[in-house]
Specification:
Blueprint (H helix, E strand, L loop, with lengths): L2 E10 L4 E3 H9 L7 H8 L3 E3 L7 H16 L8 E5 L10 H9 L5 E5 L5 H14 L5 E8 L10 H4 L5 E10 L4 E8 L7 E2 L2 E4 L2 E4 L4 E2 L1 H23 L8 E4 L4 H10 L11 H4 L6 H11 L8 E8 L3 E8 L1
Parallel strand pairs: 4-5, 4-6, 13-14
Antiparallel strand pairs: 1-7, 2-3, 6-7, 8-15, 9-12, 10-11, 14-15
The chain binds coenzyme A.
Length: about 325
């Protein structure tokens, strides 16, 4: 039986950085009031990266993928599986994974998108792990990538200050030793209304509301309860005590959710990777971007145990426990 081991990671953020002050000044020109103080106190976000008009998810994803492949020392031709998590695909079809495959110069790998909003990367990683464990793939590229700025209502201050654009990726390879120890994915579709973008294309026209809408307090409550339970159950199944975890890499939506979870799980603050201050919420890209940041600055070391968690629209949530 094979395990899936993370052998490389990469991240890419579009170069334009928008601070809270800049965003507040821009919104003020449309009589929308917000402030750096409100955003920082409620969310921990200080800035976000925003893609220039016309920049697509596949472009950000390809940059992150190249960096992950470089880091892993793997050529794109060696990949036999590409899974890309996004809610902001370039097209209705083909999948953004196929567009990235072509840009990387790979032919023949299975390539498809996963749609689980902010849980997307964790869903994609668990799926790639299952392919590798079953012997159906040997070398997989898993990407989370978003241009969320395109689905934000910039007149809705309760959502537009929270998100940013970016992409993160990992390369997995079949190995004799773990690797990914266990994963758990969950969803509750009856809660779809607390976080959704309920638009659709009919007869070539957008119908419904294509912008992200959210009941922030409902999402906050659902996120902390579901993630705490998910962490406990994935660790129990893997036979790992919570205090054995070296690094906690949660979805980066709000530092208050992250701190609350860290405390609830009894994880010391120094073990928690936080990038939400610099990246804001990049949805499916947030976990791989945070993982990559902590690998590259030397915090996450080979052999260490990492708990990754995603949560978001659907409602969806999930955990992946990995030995690096
Ligand atoms: C969105 C969130 C930051 C809002 O914080 P909150 O403490 O719940 O704030 P509320 O929604 O109760 O709003 C409080 C007040 O701030 C106002 N407000 C909302 N957005 C604001 C902004 N950007 N700037 C200034 N004021 C704002 C509201 O209008 C409200 O004003 P009122 O009291 O006069 O009605 C918080 O609910 C949250 O983080 N939820 C989770 C969201 C999330 O993580 N989503 C992604 C999951 S993948």
């Amino acid at each position: 039986m094979s395990y899936a081991k993370i052998i490389g990671s990469g991240g890419y953020l579009p170069p334009r950085v928008v601070s809270n002050d800049e965003l507040a000044a821009e919104l003020a020109t449309r009589q929308i009031e917000t402030s750096d103080t409100w955003i920082t106190e409620r969310t921990g976000i200080r800035q976000r990266h925003i893609a220039e008009p016309g920049v697509t998810t596949s472009q950000l994803a390809t940059e992150a993928a190249r960096r992950a492949l470089d880091d892993a020392g793997v050529n794109a031709e060696e990949l036999d599986l590409i899974i890309l998590a996004t809610s902001t695909p370039d097209y209705i079809f083909p999948s953004t994974a196929c567009l990235v495959q072509a840009k990387l110069g790979n032919k023949g790998a299975a390539a498809f998108d996963v749609q689980a909003v902010c849980s997307g990367f964790v869903y994609a990683l668990a799926t790639a792990d299952a392919f590798i464990r079953a012997g159906r793939a040997k070398t997989a590229l898993v990407i989370g990538a978003e241009v969320f700025s395109g689905i934000l209502d910039w007149n809705d201050r309760s959502t537009c200050v929270l998100f940013g654009d970016g992409a993160g990726a990992v390369v997995l390879r079949a190995a004799e030793e773990p690797g990914i120890l266990d994963a758990q994915l969950n969803a509750d579709g009856s809660q779809m209304k607390i976080l959704h973008a309920a638009g659709n294309v009919v007869g070539g026209q957008v119908t419904g509301d294509p912008f992200l809408r959210m009941d922030g307090q409902a999402v906050f409550k659902m996120a902390v309860t579901s993630l705490a339970n998910s962490a406990q159950s994935v660790c129990e199944r893997a036979g790992v005590a919570l205090d054995e975890i070296d690094w906690f890499v949660p979805h980066q939506a709000n530092v208050r959710i992250i701190n609350f979870l860290g405390r609830k799980l009894g994880l010391a603050e120094e073990k928690v990777v936080v990038t939400v201050d610099k990246h804001a919420n990049t949805s499916a890209a947030s976990v791989p971007l945070a993982l990559d940041a902590a690998r590259r600055d030397g915090r996450i070391q080979p052999g260490q145990l990492v708990l990754m968690q995603g949560v978001g629209g659907g409602f969806t949530w999930g955990s992946v426990l990995a030995r690096m």
